Amino acid sequence: MRICLLILGLLCQAGAARWSLPVSLLGFDAQGHAVTTSTSDGVTRLEVRDTGTGQLLRAAPVDDPGPGVAFSADVTVAAWVRADTLHVWRAGQDVAVPAAQNGLAGTQVLALSPDGTQLYAGNFSGYVQVWNTQTATRERTLPQRTWGVNRLRVSPDGQRLFVGTQGGDSRVYDTREWSFTALPDVFAKTVHSVAFSPDGTQLAVADGVDPARLLNLRDPAQSRTLPRPTAPCDVTVWRGRCATGPVTLNFSADGQTLLIAHMNGLAVLYDVQTGRPRTQVSGTEPGQTLLSPDGRTVLSGGIWHPPLRALNVP
């Protein structure tokens, strides 16, 4: 174990790669397995892998989905947009719908309910379409106050939907009655820089610049800002400024740990109850770093900088 830095009173350890594969990470299924895509011999596959070992558990060919894939909790339903066409993959069948039809033009981001029955399509013009994947019918439209829906996130229980726009409007919808709560001054840097806690009562948000925030959806007065570590600048941006902002985050399955990965390659694991850092993993990729649901492994890389690596949590 190599000691690299003392930050916030914690020992920062360089993560030892448990396994490494040329795949792209999409997220995790309900069982805590890693959901990935890979391409070989010209065929792209949607995969489910053991998070601890990287072992392939099952795979199915899909039509070149790219990184913006939404999937159900059991990975039996998936959706993506490519070349102005919406693809809905269900039970091994791929249904392609031209995005110019049925109000899908300008779709930028997708999300699926955990059971795969509801598809949410965020539009550049500033609205979200709600589709039933079983009947292929549009059930409702959610107009936003500003343009450019580019962030969607569904809570693990499927009862809340976060909608963020480029114009700065952010809302959390109750998917049972479709009422919503407006969130002031919330900007999420990437698709994976907004995450619901497992019980859906808290929302973590990272904007790539300021420290990450943990918003309490039941009692906004209990919301808080999490301390950001200071470290030597590994990535510089305009005029020598250090790019240390948080860009990806997610919770462990028990809701007790929150990972926040920063642009300088440092991932910090926080105790959700106290808001204090627990430990750190260095050498991660800024574009995509997530904590496994069991809290034992950090998966990093696999989109812009393959391969995907599984790093041990100190």
UniProtKB/TrEMBL annotation:
Q: Which keywords describe this protein according to UniProt?
A: Repeat, Signal, WD repeat
Q: Enumerate the SUPFAM superfamilies for this protein.
A: Tricorn protease domain 2 (SSF69322)
One Pfam family of this chain: WD40
Output the InterPro entries linked to this UniProt entry.
WD40/YVTN_repeat-like_dom_sf (IPR015943), WD40_rpt (IPR001680)
Where, in residue numbers, are the WD repeats? Answer: 110-141
User: What PANTHER family does its record include?
Assistant: WD REPEAT DOMAIN 5B, WD40 REPEAT PROTEIN
Name listed for the protein in its UniProt record: WD40 repeat domain-containing protein
Taxonomic lineage of this organism? Bacteria, Thermotogati, Deinococcota, Deinococci, Deinococcales
